[in-house]
Amino acid sequence: IHREFWLDIGDKTISPDGYLKPEGKVVNGSYPGPLIEACWGDDITVHVTNHVQTNGTTIHWHGLRQLHTNEADGVNGVTQCPIATGSTYTYKFKALQYGHSWYHSHYSLQYPDGVAGPMVIHGPTSANWDEALDPILISDWNHDSAFAAFQGELDGHPPTADSVVLNGIGNYTCNPQTEPRCLPESKRKPIFSKIFQKGKRYLLRLVNSSTASDFVFSIDNHILEVISTDYVPIHPFKTESIHIAIGQRYSVIVEANPSAPAQKDGNYWIRTILSEGCGAINQTRNETGVIRYDSKSTALPTSEIGSKVDTTCADEPADHLVPVVPWVVDRQAVNNVPEFGTFEVGISEQNVNQTHGYVRWDITDTPLWLNFSNPTILDLHNTSFNKQYAVISEDYNHGFVYLIITSQNITHDKKTLVPVAHPIHLHGHDFVILGQGNTTYSVTNTPRTFDYNNPPRRDVAMLPSGGWLAIAFKPDNPGVWLVHCHIAWHASSGLAMQIMERQSEIEKTIPSLGPTERTCKGWDTWFAEHV
Ligand code: C2O
Questions:
Q1: Ligand 1 center to residue 460 CA distance, Å?
Q2: CATH number of 126-324
Q3: Residue 425: CB within 6 Å of ligand 1?
């Protein structure tokens, strides 16, 4: 089936958490944007029109493989020119995975201001639930534009978010008498809530769409049965809480059967706890939503946090996250490490924490600065890009490509830097997590500890602070694909790399890239007139 959608990106003053944000951005007038819904195998067409007055835009369909549709991946400077104000770009791709995710602007720091929305692709299912709820986008939220907040990051002071919102609903404590942007109670949205009917089983589709925060999700007195990681179905496991890094998703089944002690009012907190050391938020309240058994109740819960809720900032243990469809990775890395490459994440030594200095992150020794007017896909043979590339050639004939990212260099500027974990996202592929650790990576020894037999598979995984992350993927998708830290501040200060995969096949496999998309004329003209 062919499904067609129209998204209009624009400016709007919004107040998701009760505090006006004049520099908000919206999709079809709202934050989050509308649900994009399709079935497995569908052909999807999305026409994206940009009405943001001061910037370009692009939309990325997070986690969708874009098999042979690199030009629909939505990364400006890599797979397309930015969509200039007043113009439209049409994305065409196939829904080759099923589950849920989110779409978001991939134009610089635009998504943190509101250009994000949910996506569901229905697939085969055991229907082991009675009712599926629409995705819940969990996000940290900034009252000022992300571009303004980013200035702090550049100066070596990572910004602190103001609150947490669930599907664009939050509650920031402020005083409307003294703060003009603070809305009085009467003008605020009611707290995010879902009505449960006792005995029913609900499917919750969780997404972390944050700028810089990882969360631990839990519901007081309820057990989560986790059935998928990102777009990958897994053997179900039960837990009291689940850690969700930026960009990650989980499907969880929750049985409406609260454990003792029952709450008289029949209300239970949904908690989104900032995981330890993975983000900073001014208001630390973690009771961000309510499960109600009485649809008429408006009372706030008095329930308490579960005793086994784990707030560590790390991916769930690998032995939980076992994909239903197994991938077995060849063990050649044990003796021949690593086929593809070891890359180091670092902060450059340039003036960090000095008054007019800036933070520059990089993978390899070159931060990725993109040329918006000359996206890689349109200039495949430009050798000046080479330092920012990793190249997988068409005759790479091993089953998997290994990508080892280490972050041992984190303090090399000799000043005190807060070590931080990085949620690493790869475009164009699901990857398996061969291993993660917070020790020093050893080329000879570490691969012996890898998990080769049906390891966790997903599209975002944590690079532990001061440690290493080893992933592997099948190089079966010609294109230029970004791999980057999904902390928006880090991606924007260069913590990204392009993977040039099967270069000679890219042009051949992208028949849909029409002549009008082959130049950046529209963008260049707009840019010359406005910036
Ligand atoms: Cu969620 Cu590069 O993307």
A1: 9
A2: 2.60.40.420
A3: yes
